[in-house]
Prior knowledge:
This protein has 449 residues and is mostly helical. The chain has one domain (2-301, 356-411). Helices cover 63% and strands 1% of the residues. The protein is built from 16 helices and 2 strands. A two-stranded antiparallel ribbon has the order 1-2. Strand 1 (186-187) and strand 2 (193-194) form a beta hairpin. The radius of gyration is 22 Å and the shape is globular. The chain starts with a helix and ends in a 38-residue tail after the last helix.
Amino acid sequence: MSIFFEIVIIVAYFFNGTAGMLAMLTYSIAVLLFSQKTMLHKLLELMAVSLPMAYIGIGGIAVHQFYSWYNLFLLLFLFTFIWTCSFKLPFKIYSVAALFFIMFCLLVNVIWTESTYETFTEIAQVFVMILPLSIIHAARSSFPISKEEVYGLIYRYVDFCIATAACMLLQYLLYSIFKRQVGIINFTGNGRISCYCLFKGASILPIYMGIGIIFLYLECFEKRITLDKLIKIGIIFSAVVLNSSRTALLMLTVVLIVVTWRYLRRAPSFKGFLIAALGFATHYLAINFITARRGRLAGFLDANGRMETWINGIDIWLVNIKNFFFGEGFSGERWIGISKPHNLIIQTLSQCGVLITVVVMAMIVKYLTDNRQNIYRYIPWYILLSGMLVTDFYANAFTTVIFMLVDLYGGANTSTGTATDSPPAVPEPFVKNKAFPKPGWNRGNIHYE
């Protein structure tokens, strides 16, 4: 039922910014006043709910993302966390040192970067992602939230992936059949859909929705295959294919192959082989569909695509000693006539230099290592792999939220949210262990069958 209200909010923004603002305001007030959860839990939920509108203003203006619902809830979350928990939770000295080091290097970077609104926006986006992730990871084992509550938040996140996909399909049908344009819908390159009213780039929207597919795919393996799960996967997958995003489809294929292989290797079953057969057949048809519309899937790595941006980014990074250590900066003057590198590592090297890149990569490795037994560890891997093929990936709000939720799930206890060495309530996927109860399907809370 909650998906209905989520669709209403997105559709309201399609038609009118004021209507969308009133719909989101009403929803936010209802959550803040009537939910029985803690304030931190409420703000995490509202951050997930506001993701489809993260890059438009509260009033529907598409150019001022700083004045968005997401940024408002993120600031409230950070303020509430610091005010209520900062002196109670253990923080490791290396986490604090890494943050101050990144801050110092970025401030040095500002010296030779052109002082524009875009410059400070990009620098702020780096901190908007790194700061909340760092404090959550440093305190994840003692964060005041239970594993069941985090599961509910992740499912709410997936709900909005589904709602976004459904709204995109509705938008396309209204445009293609009834010739009615709702919101901003552009067709770029062989009919590719680009919904800039939701996200800031055509490649980002399907990557965000793909997270919902991975979650539901894991649910099918770990629990029962139900009609509603298949319908939800179908809705999201249809929107991803309709967008013709090669990055999202390729990375989805890679991650789902790994998930399927690990499951069938450890716990072979007829259900597993059926899911694998249906999944691979669907992906084969989707790849042929996108190939027919946009050319060979390998085409986006050739001299007319990403490979050129990678070479250009490395050249800028190595042009002198200053760029090697501190980067070119965020002014964009060297990017005239060519897009920024479609690669998370190369873009960070060229803009921030090797010092910040090494620290950020070390933080990512630490995150992945600490979550290597997490049931949802494949979602961060999917996001990072996608980041190797798109630009400005560090600045995407949905990355921050899902990384936080996955981290909290890995550190939370079954009922109290405190540190524990016992196995999680939801069993580790792909391991047959009858000692753990199977969670029933009840959104928001896990009940045991």
